[in-house]
């Protein structure tokens, strides 16, 4: 089986409650962006609950002066053991779902059904295709001339554990190595075969997130599911500092906000 990767735009905070009607409004706006306006949905799976459910408590993302309940070192609380079969967050979310709601590939009828549903979402996996023109946008050669590997051909929206990972993991200053971290519970991703090399992930973000319509999607996520602008916890600052390319930005002390991260498997 080949390598599979995702460029993950994730929300690093406790997830809000999202109703079916609220999701319908988001999808109606998503469908108007260049990324999704010509998409065919390939998968829709939803579980209903009173809010987005967490099977595993993610590590503390927000700074806290009073929370002393956690005694383990931060890197051990971040570590997620390898699964029997290493797969992407999106695929693992699908496999863990026994969906209460699934749907065919028609965007219009999905939105209409959600508008008429009085439920709150516990888990979600929704994916759609990129057009040939969008696919070609991501094929620009690296300046070195080395072959491009990551070729996203679809997008996905996930409510469930959001994990970031690199093929070789990250070597920490204390000698530990971690392979995967849970960073949140909501994400929008670009997915496809291959891995990011020869681009560094920071280079990839700076270059390819300028794709037509992608910034619209990022703004839509930020505006729909906002995050309080608070300082990051010491744990998150250490994660940003020590895990190369997980944080493709210069300021490791930046307040919490939606951000891009890599997932390779």
Write up this protein.
This protein has eight helices and seven strands, in the order E-H-E-H-H-E-H-E-H-E-E-H-H-H-E. The chain has 265 residues and is of the alpha+beta class. The longest helix has 11 residues. Strand 5 and strand 6 form a beta hairpin. A seven-stranded antiparallel β-sheet has the order 3-2-4-5-6-1-7.
Explain briefly what this protein structure is.
By secondary structure, the chain is an alpha+beta fold.
Number of strands: 7
Helix content: 25-40%
Roughly how many Å is the radius of gyration? 18 Å
**Residue fraction in strands:** 25-35%
Shape: globular
Blueprint (SSEs and pairs):
Elements: E1 4-11, H1 20-30, E2 41-48, H2 74-78, H3 89-96, E3 101-102, H4 107-115, E4 121-129, H5 132-137, E5 151-171, E6 177-193, H6 201-208, H7 214-224, H8 234-242, E7 259-264
Antiparallel strand pairs: 1-6, 1-7, 2-3, 2-4, 4-5, 5-6
Helix pairs in contact: 1-4
